[in-house]
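agent> call fold_tool(seq_1)
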Amino acid sequence: MSKRANCFMPACGLDGKLCPDCASASPTWVVDALRQEMNRQAEEHRCMVENLAVALSAARSERDAALARLNSPELVSFRDGVVLEAAHQRLRWSAEHDAGKTAPDWFWLVGYLAGKALHAHLSGNTEKALHHTISTAAALANWHAAILGTFKEMRPGLSEEATRGVDCGS
């Protein structure tokens, strides 16, 4: 049986016409040809799915590595540490965490973190002192961005409504 370019059978061509050879072919040959084409397409799709799975796995690994880096404090390089910590803070405490904040909320956060740095330093815990110094600077960077209006996702503290009637020891 010769293959024709104008036949709809996968073995002959795919332009929608049945060649004389296929028209007179046995039903088992037609079924076998269709089965062969289905198997070829299934293998092609299986390879595509495998390639997508490999790409997805690589993307997940990259994401996990980036998150691990973001969630690991940098203590030696102050500049790098502040950039990483500021991003970490924005990821961890986003705008959904609370309602809008005021300058006193930011001031309180910076004072709180600076106090943690002071306490760690006085107690001899250098690693914690370095971390809290960087986290304080990162909070200042996020406050700076909030003042500029370039980044409004991080909002520490509680809304004014939530703090009404609360004695803060003033």
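agent> call fold_tool(seq_2)
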Amino acid sequence: MKLRRHSSPRDVRDLVSFRMAAFTTINDRIGQIVISGRFGMTLREWRTLATIAYLQPALTTTVAHESFLDKAQTSRIIAKLVDDGLVARVGSHGAASSRGGALRLSARGEKLYPEVLAFAREMNELLLEPLADREIEALLSTLDRLVARANERYLEVQGAVGTIALADSTRARARQKQRLRKAAGR
């Protein structure tokens, strides 16, 4: 059985990671222009607000993890959202807290969130417009698998930077042996 693999890249533009980064960068630039102009917030502020909305009550570390940002960036964004009256910090008994504590959308945040989410859904539909429903389903399924694989790789490099090449070659040899056994009918 012949494996389906992308041919050797001619240059960086042929790499999947580069193409996905280009797509993300272009889409983020559009989002930044439109979200800031229409709602007066940055794209990262919107994504952080949206992440808090689905997690609430949420801790800063959880929001950082879910947003793919570091804790320091997330803390600065949250501080701005708190200053803008969109997010509130709540203590252990539900009372307002000036420092630490869980994060919730404030009344103002609860009012703004559905407006921006509806707009983000419209932008998402425009982005997916050229694709048929089956292509969208395939794309989302593929992205789920790629994100899962990227997370696996991240955990590998995070814990063992010097052993990645060895792990890759060991895995590659194991896959090759498995393919050979399969081809031989074993």
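agent> summarizing second result for user.
Residues 155 and 161 are 10 Å apart (CA to CA). The two ends are 14 Å apart (CA to CA).
agent> awaiting next instruction.
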